[in-house]
Amino acid sequence: MQIDETSAVATAMSTDVLTVGPGHTLRQVSAAMAGRKVGAAVVVDSDASGAGIITERDILRSIAAGEDPDVETAHDHQTTEIVYATPAWTLAQAAEAMMRGGFRHLVVLDGSEVAGMLSVRDIVRAWARQP
Description:
The chain is of the alpha/beta class. The protein has helices at residues 26-36, 56-64, 74-77, 91-101, 120-129, and strands at 19-20, 40-43, 52-55, 84-85, 105-110, 113-119. Helix 1 (26-36) links the parallel strand 1 and strand 2 (40-43).
């Protein structure tokens, strides 16, 4: 099977993005992620420029370090230096950015607005659907 690496991010991304506030505890974030069956959430802080991202890995690291998930907040564990994709990127460009950066989720921006989230699973799913 030959994979069409030119498919756009817009064809595979999820547009129903979980957002949390910076003051949400890690327990609240993990419950929201589990409830939505997602591995990442966008952290939106009206007092900061740009969005952050918190992933299941961030929560796992905190728990492994013995930190209290009822005390630790999304703000303290989010990544703020995010690599953003655009809906027009190809899936190959997105996969390359993920491999280069060592992460599994990309926040997709359309202009300055969050348009979606793309995961490695989304890319695999898109490529597996191709004839």
